[in-house]
């Protein structure tokens, strides 16, 4: 018998729901702490969640916003094939197919059913960005013409831990297809550990309170997040708001790729439509629709609601997201999607610009808001060595705050890897500089955050650099008179020559080459003329701005008007 | 006379013990000059400084210097190309949806960060020699012009090859003798440059503050003809003579919570209880610590104000659940307790200082487990009506009575603490049911039974005077010095040799230091290897008995590591997965010759023999008993309240409490 959520004792409800949220957080901690690859253990590019028996996300570990929106969506094709009543203990689902609800092949989702008294009462889920899942190049194949070239595609599948893992056929198949099995297989073990702890916590709660009560609390938590999301939407004036931004190019041609968002607020509901966005492209910059939905929901959540609202399936009920089929934000199979983050970030920016017309005090200016995925790889005697790191840049400024300097993209939250850890683990390169970029933040009453440079010296011949990034050409816009942030760049110094790389590029290095990656800054907010002299002077002393820019900023103040951009 | 003085944010606690004489005093703290409160406590207890043989002190001076940004003006010197590591931090956000995110602020500005040309690789090979000329030409004039009191030097790879740092220090010392220089290899010789750099900067930042404070303290003591030993508490649970602590500021942070845990452990040991979960509930937060076989778990890192500090500390988890935690209903209709607190002002509604929002303390007043005229030994009268009134709105929204709302608030506060206990126990593969719960702090014993019920703990051990157990912990603390080093070593045949060499090095250094501090007598050593599978980034501690070092085999270490990994992550690694040691942690301990005898302070307030407490089954007639009258062989069945000077123990119906010979109260289900 199902319990009516409304009949729950308020204290039981509060305790069980906080315990579910804590369990999801614990799953996330286990995932990161037992991981092997730098992208998971240091950059923390993974997430974990608890789902109810139908696959609605109830509670999530807040690690990477981009992965959080749609864990429940990825689950649906699995449950369709393998309904709960057909599952036995030890079973689990695995999927990474972007065209079955996944995001990109590197993000592999694992779902473990949680059994209680022989019945499935929920699922524990985890997703990790895997360093290498096969494909045309180690870590990152920027030239992939389709999703097949990007790596091993795993459609929704059911396996059993006893039979298929621990040396079983699925584990062996995976191991045979990845370039760095020690790390990748270890990261799968970390996902399994995270799922195991989530299941154990839910079972403990069921022991204490009964499975019906847990199910009722899960239902109530969905209603709770929905109610709070609706309350937040009601505070926005009804209307139709539009915003636009663009991806630099697709890496093949030089054409900018526009992203257009129309946000319609009606009472306590919102629709977001991306009509007007560029058609899908031949390179990996397309975003599968699940990724588009994640980006849109994350933006609304960040801009409109207080941080303590559990980000679960209930919060999404009042929001509808649509994108034209065949566009970059909803491509047709088998378009490549590895670098989905760039267009998703522009979708995020376009929504933020639309919302700036409705709630100017809640939004921020565009930041560099670009995922720079940077890979150095080397094939030595003992096999491949792959270094992958995700870089952010400067945040956009808010009405009352400067943008954060040198921080990951709002849709992501990757940590940097300590230089001393890289020194220990990778003998084929050395980081020789890691510095904030003076003058890279947009001017404004509040300045944009600074981007940064990171330089690597190749210590061997045959080191390959590959990257995808964006905003090398089109900078981050300011808001309400604020200036734009600096664009990013990547260059290789070889002796006296400097070789410029594009934002989506790859190249073989020689020993002694120095690759410098520069990420851009965020846009400013408000008229630069309104910035106080004290702040300008402090920024100048700290080298956040150069004397030349300080002069233009002060001139703007003297003239009593703002000008865009340094 | 042995005296412990613990300066907290609101109160300064003193415990003085001389044979069977026990003095316990709580006086208001004097935040501007904490030493005044400390000396006030001596006076209030009627103790002459000249009669004190052993004085141990703990204070929040170091922590506050950071929180209030009142440390030295400090410069940061690092390897060329990396001046911004203090500002990059880890490039992530603590709250992923915060659009106005601000990173934790280091205690200096970007202009205070300077570079020297040099580079050493992870093996300690010099890639670029130190440019001494540039140091003389550029760095030293810049430091002089900046007028810095202190300099923190953290060069890349200095944890493995400290020579460049040492040379930079020499050059600065020679040119600027009045500037204090802290080197990262001396403060935290571990890899991961941001964490090591911040630790070094914070150390340099608080050093002059601690040094000045302890110098003033020593001078005042000297004036009062004090001739005993004066030592200071550390966050690792040990003490050091003041003269050593004046040069060792970083371990003075967070000494208060550590002192409480040490006091609790030592007191519980007397009752033969060595597996404990301690919880210290105060006004704004609760600190929880897991103790296995008398040894508190240790964490390699802590943080203050969001900034990491790389030094081994007692592993204490803090949750925002204290007596002052606010009870509220969020905009989704859910009942919440904390993390926001009513703070010192206005404080709980029942304080009558203008607070109208309900708190956990108000909930206790409503249900009757805090008596309005017995708060803080009767020194403060509470307003019962205001406590009731504060709950009306919450009760109305939930459609329940004020008493039920207060009961609900207490259940939620209990649940918050239970989650903190799970963080230190179940998350690390330990089952709380096999531990005794040890509550302390002013508000801990009031909730102990309910927390034990939730966790399934069978037994509760309540020390005497639980509200001042930290001050007792100062007296009970051994002399301890800890150190850790990064020494990445594959678990091959060489590993035991590396362990033996590193251990011997620490041992010789520690023996020399302790002798020079006048700490003779037997020294005990501890050794922990921080281990992981090759490729992982987070280590698991594996303790190694130094006596086993001589015959240690790599396979022993591998087995112990695998078991620990399995306990936490449910798998012990596939066969053949390589294991490595990343770092080593050492401790040297000079045990106390004797532990002072701690007894309940006699505290008598006029009170009725029985009161009424609201329980889930309605009003319960509750015996009211003075803590000092509780004696062995005379168990008390709940409902009862056992009232002492610094704290009250709530014995709910169905529980039974009895004093044992060593002086603790043991509480079990009847």
UniProtKB/TrEMBL annotation, chain A:
UniProt record, GO biological process: glutathione metabolic process
UniProt-listed InterPro entries: Hydantoinase_B, Oxoprolinase-like
A Pfam family this chain is assigned to: Hydantoinase_B
Start and end residues of each Hydantoinase B/oxoprolinase domain: 9-528
Protein name according to UniProt: N-methylhydantoinase B
GO molecular function: 5-oxoprolinase (ATP-hydrolyzing) activity
Chain segments annotated as coiled-coil in the UniProt record: none
One cellular-component annotation, GO: cytosol
From TrEMBL, chain B:
Residues annotated as transmembrane: none
UniProt cross-references to SUPFAM superfamilies, sorted A to Z: Actin-like ATPase domain
InterPro entries noted in UniProt: ACX-like_C (IPR049517), ATPase_NBD (IPR043129), Hydant_A_N (IPR008040), Hydantoinase_A (IPR002821), Oxoprolinase-like (IPR045079)
Limits of the Hydantoinase/oxoprolinase N-terminal domain: 2-174
Gene Ontology CC: one annotated term: cytosol
Domain Acetophenone carboxylase-like C-terminal: 496-660
Gene Ontology biological process terms from the UniProt entry: glutathione metabolic process
Domain annotation Hydantoinase A/oxoprolinase: ranges: 196-480
Molecular-function GO term, any one: 5-oxoprolinase (ATP-hydrolyzing) activity
Pfam families given in the database record: Hydant_A_C, Hydant_A_N, Hydantoinase_A
Stated name of the protein: N-methylhydantoinase A
């Amino acid at each position: 018998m199902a319990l009516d959520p409304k009949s729950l004792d308020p204290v039981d409800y509060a305790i069980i729901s906080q315990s579910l949220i804590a369990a999801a957080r614990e799953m996330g901690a286990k995932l990161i702490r037992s991981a092997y690859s730098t992208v998971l253990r240091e950059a923390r590019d993974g997430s974990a969640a608890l789902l109810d028996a139908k696959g609605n996300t109830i509670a999530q570990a807040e690690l990477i916003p981009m992965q959080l929106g749609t864990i429940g969506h990825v689950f649906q094709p699995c449950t369709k094939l393998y309904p709960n009543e057909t599952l036995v203990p030890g079973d689990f689902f695995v999927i990474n197919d972007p065209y079955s609800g996944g995001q990109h092949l590197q993000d592999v989702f694992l779902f473990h059913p949680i059994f209680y008294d022989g019945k499935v009462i929920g699922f524990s889920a985890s997703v990790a960005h895997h360093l290498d899942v096969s494909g045309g190049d180690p870590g990152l194949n920027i030239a992939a013409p389709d999703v097949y070239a990007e790596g091993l595609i795993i459609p929704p599948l059911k396996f059993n831990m006893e039979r298929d893992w621990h040396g079983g056929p699925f584990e062996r198949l995976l191991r045979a297809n990845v370039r760095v099995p020690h790390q990748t297989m270890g990261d799968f073990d970390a996902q399994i550990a995270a799922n195991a702890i989530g299941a154990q916590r839910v079972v403990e709660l069921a022991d204490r309170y009964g499975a019906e009560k847990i199910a009722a609390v899960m239902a109530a938590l969905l209603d709770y997040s929905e109610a709070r999301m609706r309350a937040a939407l009601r505070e926005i004036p009804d209307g139709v708001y539009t915003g636009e931004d663009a991806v630099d190019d697709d890496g093949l041609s030089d054409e900018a790729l526009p992203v257009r968002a129309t946000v319609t607020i009606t009472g306590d509901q919102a629709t977001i439509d991306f009509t007007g966005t560029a058609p899908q492209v031949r390179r990996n910059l397309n975003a599968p629709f699940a990724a588009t939905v994640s980006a849109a929901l994350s933006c609304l959540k960040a801009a409109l609601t207080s941080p303590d609202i559990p980000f679960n399936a209930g919060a999404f009920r009042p929001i509808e997201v649509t994108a034209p089929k065949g566009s970059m934000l909803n491509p047709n199979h088998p378009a490549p999607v590895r670098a989905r983050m760039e267009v998703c970030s522009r979708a995020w920016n376009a929504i933020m610009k639309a919302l700036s017309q409705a709630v100017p005090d809640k939004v921020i200016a565009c930041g560099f808001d670009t995922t720079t995925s940077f890979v150095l790889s080397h094939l030595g005697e003992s096999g491949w060595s792959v270094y992958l790191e995700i870089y952010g840049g400067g945040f956009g400024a808010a009405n009352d705050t400067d943008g954060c300097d040198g921080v990951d993209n709002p849709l992501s939250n990757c940590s940097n890897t300590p230089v001393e850890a890289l020194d220990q683990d990778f003998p084929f390169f050395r980081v020789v500089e890691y510095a904030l970029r003076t003058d890279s933040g947009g001017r404004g009453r509040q300045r944009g955050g600074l981007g940064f440079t990171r330089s690597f010296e190749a210590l061997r011949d045959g080191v390959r650099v590959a990257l995808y990034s964006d905003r090398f050409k089109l900078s981050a816009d300011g808001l309400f008179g604020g200036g734009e942030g600096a664009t990013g760049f990547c260059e290789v110094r070889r002796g006296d020559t400097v070789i410029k790389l594009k934002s989506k590029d790859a190249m073989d290095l020689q020993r002694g080459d120095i690759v410098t990656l520069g990420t851009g800054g965020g846009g400013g907010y408000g008229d630069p003329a309104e910035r106080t002299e004290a702040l300008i002077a402090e920024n100048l002393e700290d080298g956040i701005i150069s004397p030349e820019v300080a002069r233009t900023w002060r001139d703007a103040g003297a003239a009593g008007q703002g000008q865009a951009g340094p | 006379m042995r005296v412990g003085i613990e300066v907290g944010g609101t109160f300064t606690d003193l415990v003085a013990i001389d044979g069977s004489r026990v003095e316990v005093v709580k006086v208001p703290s004097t935040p501007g000059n904490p030493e005044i409160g400390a000396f006030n406590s001596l006076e209030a207890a009627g103790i002459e400084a000249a009669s004190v043989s052993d004085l141990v002190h703990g204070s929040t001076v170091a922590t506050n210097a950071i929180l209030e940004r009142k440390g030295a003006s400090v410069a940061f010197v690092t390897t060329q190309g990396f001046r911004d590591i203090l500002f990059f931090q880890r490039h992530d956000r603590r709250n992923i949806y915060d659009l106005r995110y601000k990173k934790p602020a280091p205690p200096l500005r970007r202009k205070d960060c300077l570079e020297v040309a040099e580079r050493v690789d992870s093996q300690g090979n010099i890639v670029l020699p130190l440019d001494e000329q540039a140091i003389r030409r550029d760095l030293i004039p810049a430091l002089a012009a900046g007028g810095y009191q202190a300099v923190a030097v953290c060069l890349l790879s200095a944890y493995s090859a400290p020579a460049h740092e040492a040379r930079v220090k020499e050059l600065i010392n020679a040119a600027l003798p009045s500037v204090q220089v802290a080197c990262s290899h001396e403060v935290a010789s571990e890899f991961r440059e941001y964490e090591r750099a911040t630790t070094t900067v914070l150390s340099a930042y608080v050093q002059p503050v601690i040094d000045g404070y302890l110098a003033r303290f020593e001078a005042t003591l000297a004036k009062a003809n004090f001739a005993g030993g004066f030592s200071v508490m550390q966050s690792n649970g040990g003490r050091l003579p003041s003269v050593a602590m004046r040069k060792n500021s970083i371990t003075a942070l967070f000494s208060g919570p550590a002192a409480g845990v040490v006091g609790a452990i030592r007191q519980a040991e007397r009752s033969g209880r060595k597996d404990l979960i301690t919880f210290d509930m105060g006004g704004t937060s609760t600190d929880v610590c897991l103790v296995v076989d008398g040894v508190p778990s240790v964490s390699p890192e802590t943080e203050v104000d969001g900034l990491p500090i790389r030094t081994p500390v007692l592993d204490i988890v803090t949750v925002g659940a204290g007596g002052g935690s606010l009870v509220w209903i969020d905009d989704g209709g859910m009942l919440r307790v904390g993390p926001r607190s009513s703070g010192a002002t206005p404080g709980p509604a029942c304080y009558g200082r203008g607070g109208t929002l309900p708190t956990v303390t108000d909930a206790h007043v409503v249900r009757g487990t805090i008596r309005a005229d017995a708060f803080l030994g009767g020194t403060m009268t509470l307003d019962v009506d205001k406590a009731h009134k504060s709950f009306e709105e919450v009760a109305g929204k939930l459609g329940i009575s004020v008493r039920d709302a207060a009961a609900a608030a207490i259940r939620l506060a209990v649940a918050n603490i239970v989650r903190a206990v799970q963080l230190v126990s179940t998350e690390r593969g330990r089952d709380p049911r096999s531990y005794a719960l040890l509550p302390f702090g002013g508000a801990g014993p009031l909730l102990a039974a309910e927390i034990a019920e939730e966790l399934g703990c069978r037994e509760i051990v309540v020390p005497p005077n639980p509200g001042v157990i930290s001050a007792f912990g100062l007296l009970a603390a051994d002399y301890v010095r800890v150190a850790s080093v990064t020494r990445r070593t594959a678990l091959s045949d060489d590993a035991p040799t590396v362990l033996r060499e590193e251990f011997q090095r620490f041992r010789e250094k520690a023996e020399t230091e302790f002798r020079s501090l006048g700490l003779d007598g037997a020294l005990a050593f501890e050794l922990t290897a921080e281990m992981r599978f090759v490729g992982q980034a987070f280590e698991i501690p594996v303790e190694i008995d130094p006596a086993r070092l001589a015959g240690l085999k790599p396979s022993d270490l591998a087995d112990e590591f695998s078991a620990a990994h399995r306990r936490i992550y449910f798998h012990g690694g596939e066969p053949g997965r390589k294991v490595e040691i990343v770092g080593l942690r050492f401790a040297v301990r000079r045990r106390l010759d004797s532990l002072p005898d701690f007894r309940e302070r006699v505290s008598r307030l006029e009170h009725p023999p029985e009161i009424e407490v609201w329980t889930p089954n309605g009003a319960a007639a509750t015996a009211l008993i003075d803590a000092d009258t509780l004696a062995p062989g005379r168990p008390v069945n709940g409902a009862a309240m056992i009232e002492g000077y610094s704290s009250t123990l709530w014995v709910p119906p169905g529980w039974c409490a009895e004093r044992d010979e060593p002086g603790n109260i043991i509480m079990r289900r009847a």
